[in-house]
């Protein structure tokens, strides 16, 4: 489809903040991030545990518990979602935006057949007969590669393997032709041969329906393979963002560079030692001034005090497009080592 | 020849399934006839997908599980039938590091108590200096001795698990998914620590992992498991660069590489691993294999030297071997 404006983002998030109220005081899990994804495109949000990547996506879906305060804009096709009343949001959730979770077993109800569950997701948003919905469910189960779908629709989740369950969850997410699909670590619980099947499936789905995909992952291998754009998160903030090539070939943030160096590779002879990032990721809210990565950063001495006193904002990097990094170091870090 | 630390001979481990009394008794063939030798100073990577039997094999090797059949030799001694108190000398030679440091450390014990447990099991009272040295060996400071597991991050807890295993000065560490619960940046720290300890202490490892990139980083030799059997074994470089078994080839091709635009020539396997309750006849991989022929269903192929392998095969071969009727030709 070559219509004008196809590359205009379908989902835009501006200055998103998520703060949890806890007994120990407010915990800022997401501290001002922006991202956007266009139809047919894949945005990967990467980061380690506690970086806020899952909380961000849950905030978009309005799935956070009541002790979470969400501020900022979440625009679906220009329409503000943040602050919508529950019944309005429910019309959008699972319909225009759908989500695939990491753990397919807990995303499915063990008491109902998978066919029933996929059909229910359809009937929530379409006024159709049970029979029609069941037919639609079988169509989707078939599409995601469940063999003998019309018979397997009557099976229960426990009768499926992990990979097949994840296919069911994807079928459920796709049953209403969503325009945005958020996949939170969709293959982390799966074996690598099954992961390859699921990633191929998501790719096919995107090609066929032009779905915008937000992939949340810690696996840089998966990201390199499927993403168009990448957002690297650290301690609730954006460390760097750019195209997949910007991030992997022209990493501008020391954290991104550290992550890439820490990944062992299967396709080349091993390095004598992996590059490591000293220390561990900070707990949310523990670093309030300066750069959150500063205590682990090998380049702080190149910059000095600013890293401790001044919070770096995303600033454009030389080159084409929108490659941005939040680092006081103006140059590409690896050049300096 | 270098000293054999561990020698598994035709090891089988079946788990009985309790079913209704009128049903035929069934069993899960978790490990179904494995031979494996680990020599001093080497790191053997045991890879495979879930249900391949790699963790069960690790537990049989450390004598945490009794094999259903076969022999376990540790340091040249047959320990298959050794039990209870008499296992203690065995445990001094071989120790285990577990996947989940959260679950394998007692939350009610301080680090000092955790680290001194293996000593006390051997009838030794460790001095504080010994415990502090252990901590330093894994890169932790003295003041951590009085702390409790919940005060540590995942990576630090895994270091404590490694320190505990090192306390009795073993020759061989069996590590079951030691880094799979850790973040990438922390995983690299622990992998480097394992490499440092090998160099400093002359340790040997059996590294059980599903992550093939992690295994490539540290292993000298690789054994690939599928449905309870080793389907390919050999020097790491040969197995990774010229896999002979179709399963190994498919498995390696499925691993995504952190470099955009790399063409991976992927073999996407269909279906899932069959159930180990009722494995396929003949070659266990034939139901998903892209090369399967009629002969594959007849008899299980045995490990045979791969064409072009640099070493000659004997019973105790460390050369490149694969169990396949139609192995991949060596790259030209």
Automatic annotation (TrEMBL), chain A:
Q: Which NCBIfam families does its entry note?
A: oligo_HPY
| One Pfam family hit | oligo_HPY
Sample GO molecular function, one term: ATP binding
Taken from the UniProt entry, a GO cellular component term is: plasma membrane
Which domain of life does this protein belong to? Bacteria
Please name the source species: Kribbella pratensis
Instruction: Write the protein's name.
Output: Peptide/nickel transport system ATP-binding protein
The record's InterPro entries line, in alphabetical order, gives: AAA+_ATPase, ABC_Ni/Peptide_Import, ABC_transporter-like_ATP-bd, ABC_transporter-like_CS, Oligopep_ABC_C, P-loop_NTPase
Biological process GO annotation list? peptide transport
- Assigned protein family: Belongs to the ABC transporter superfamily.
Q: Say yes or no: keyword Thylakoid present.
A: no
Annotated localization: Cell membrane
Q: Where is this region: Disordered?
A: 311-337
Keyword list (alphabetical) reads: ATP-binding, Cell membrane, Membrane, Nucleotide-binding, Transport
Q: Please give the Gene3D superfamilies that the UniProt record associates with this protein.
A: P-loop containing nucleotide triphosphate hydrolases
SMART domains, per database record: AAA (SM00382)
Which topology term describes how it sits in the membrane?
A: Peripheral membrane protein
TrEMBL record, chain B:
In this chain, the stretch annotated as Disordered covers 304-332
Query: What molecular function does GO assign, one term?
Result: ATP binding
Q: Does the keyword Ribonucleoprotein apply?
A: no
- CDD domains named in the record: ABC_NikE_OppD_transporters
Ranges for domain ABC transporter: 6-252
Record keywords, A-Z: ATP-binding, Nucleotide-binding, Transport
Gene Ontology terms: biological process: peptide transport; transmembrane transport
The text of the family note is:
Belongs to the ABC transporter superfamily.
PANTHER family listed in its UniProt record: D,D-DIPEPTIDE TRANSPORT ATP-BINDING PROTEIN DDPF-RELATED, TRANSPORT ATP-BINDING PROTEIN
What is the recorded name of this protein? Peptide/nickel transport system ATP-binding protein/oligopeptide transport system ATP-binding protein
């Amino acid at each position: 489809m070559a219509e004008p404006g196809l590359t205009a983002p379908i989902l835009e998030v501006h200055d998103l903040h998520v703060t949890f109220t806890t007994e120990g005081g407010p915990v800022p899990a997401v501290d001002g991030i922006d991202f956007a994804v266009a139809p047919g495109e894949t945005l990967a949000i990467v980061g380690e545990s506690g970086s806020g990547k899952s909380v961000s996506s849950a905030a978009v879906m309005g799935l956070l518990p009541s002790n979470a305060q969400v501020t900022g804009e979440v625009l679906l096709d220009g329409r503000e979602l943040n602050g919508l009343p529950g019944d309005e949001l429910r019309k959008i959730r699972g319909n225009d935006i759908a989500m695939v979770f990491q753990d397919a077993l807990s995303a499915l109800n063990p008491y109902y057949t998978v066919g029933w569950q996929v059909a229910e997701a359809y009937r929530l948003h379409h006024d159709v007969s049970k029979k029609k919905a069941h037919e639609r469910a079988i169509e989707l189960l078939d599409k995601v590669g469940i063999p003998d779908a019309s018979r397997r629709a009557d099976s229960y989740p426990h009768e499926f393997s992990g990979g097949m369950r994840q296919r069911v969850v994807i079928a459920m997410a796709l049953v209403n032709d969503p325009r945005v699909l958020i996949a939170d670590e969709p293959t982390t619980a799966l074996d690598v041969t099954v992961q390859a099947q699921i990633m191929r499936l998501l790719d096919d789905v995107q090609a066929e329906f032009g779905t915008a995909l937000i992939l949340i992952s810690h696996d840089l291998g998966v990201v390199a393979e499927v993403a168009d754009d990448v957002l690297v998160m650290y301690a609730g903030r954006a460390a760097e963002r750019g195209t997949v090539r910007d991030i992997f070939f022209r990493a501008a943030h020391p954290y991104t560079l550290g992550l890439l160096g820490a990944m062992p590779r299967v396709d080349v002879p091993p390095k004598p030692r992996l590059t490591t990032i000293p220390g561990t990721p900070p707990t949310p809210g523990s670093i309030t001034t300066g750069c959150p990565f500063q205590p682990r950063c090998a380049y702080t001495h190149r910059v000095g005090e600013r890293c401790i006193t001044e919070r770096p904002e995303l600033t454009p990097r030389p080159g084409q497009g929108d490659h941005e990094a939040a680092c006081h170091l103006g140059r590409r870090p690896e050049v300096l080592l | 020849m270098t000293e054999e630390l561990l020698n598994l001979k035709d090891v089988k481990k079946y788990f009985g399934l309790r079913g209704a009394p009128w049903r035929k008794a069934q069993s899960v063939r978790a490990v179904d006839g494995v031979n494996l030798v680990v020599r001093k100073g080497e790191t053997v990577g045991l890879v495979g997908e879930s249900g391949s039997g790699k963790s069960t094999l690790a537990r049989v090797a450390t004598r945490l599980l009794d094999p259903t059949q076969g022999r376990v030799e540790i340091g040249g001694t047959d320990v298959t039938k050794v039990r209870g108190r008499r296992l203690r000398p065995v445990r001094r030679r071989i120790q285990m590091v577990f996947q989940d440091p959260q679950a394998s450390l007692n939350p009610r014990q301080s680090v000092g108590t955790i680290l001194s447990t293996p000593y006390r099991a051997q009838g030794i009272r460790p001095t504080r200096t010994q415990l502090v040295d252990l901590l330093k060996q894994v890169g932790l400071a003295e003041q951590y001795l009085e702390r409790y597991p919940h005060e540590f991050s995942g990576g630090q807890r895994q270091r404590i698990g490694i320190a505990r295993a090192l306390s009795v000065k073993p020759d061989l560490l069996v590590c079951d998914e030691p880094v799979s619960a850790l973040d990438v940046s922390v995983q690299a720290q622990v992998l480097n620590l394992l490499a440092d300890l090998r160099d400093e202490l002359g340790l040997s490892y059996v590294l059980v992992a599903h992550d093939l990139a992690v295994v490539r980083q540290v292993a000298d030799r690789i054994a690939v498991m599928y449905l309870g059997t080793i389907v390919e074994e050999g020097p790491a470089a040969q197995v990774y660069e010229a896999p002979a078994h179709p399963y190994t080839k498919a498995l390696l091709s499925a691993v995504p590489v952190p470099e955009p635009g790399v063409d991976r020539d992927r073999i996407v396997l269909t279906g899932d691993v069959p159930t180990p309750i009722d494995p396929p006849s003949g070659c266990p991989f034939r139901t998903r294999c892209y090369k399967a022929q009629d002969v594959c269903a007849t008899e299980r192929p045995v490990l045979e030297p791969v064409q072009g392998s640099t070493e000659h095969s004997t019973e105790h071969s460390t050369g490149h071997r694969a169990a396949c009727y139609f192995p991949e030709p060596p790259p030209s």
